[in-house]
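Re: [help] complex structure
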Amino acid sequence: GDSVTQMEGPVTLSEEAFLTINCTYTATGYPSLFWYVQYPGEGLQLLLKATKADDKGSNKGFEATYRKETTSFHLEKGSVQVSDSAVYFCALSSGGTGRRALTFGSGTRLQVQP
Amino acid sequence: GAVVSQHPSWVICKSGTSVKIECRSLDFQATTMFWYRQFPKQSLMLMATSNEGSKATYEQGVEKDKFLINHASLTLSTLTVTSAHPEDSSFYICRPDNPDFFHFGNGTRLTVT
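Output below.
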């Protein structure tokens, strides 16, 4: 079955540091890949997505590239801010019509210190 | 943009009572709605998939008699937690199935005392 593996957290960085959160996946076919962010006490926000190999998703300074050869979708940001402190979830969707449920990774907590 | 409205945002109930959570797709029709559950400090797990006009499908380990799902219209799906117990305390969140829309409702935080 489908699965997503994320790096263990928490990840603690100083403000303006470079961020990488690793994500690898196992899926049948050609899944779509996503990063979601969850701020404390809140719901999920879609951060970015990519639907095919070599696509790069980007939003709010975050980027991730769909690497089919390494089955990865690592999240990066060049300079993190305290406001980026949150839990980040990598997810995939491999179903067709009527079965676009998402499979989530375990989440990675990011703590950015001033 | 498209919006998913989930209500209530939070609820506290006593053990043994039932709680209904609504999920509305405001901008498009959704024949299928996904319901997820998130326990504290854990990831999201798919609980069930509701289908307009037919029975919901439940993931392994999810009690269908406890978590009643109704998808009576193309824009509304409801999840009722029946005879709630403290172990049902969790964050419940929905998302309509759409090839171009991958946003979630804001979620419902349920606390059973």
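Chain A touches chain B through 21 residues (CB under 8 Å).
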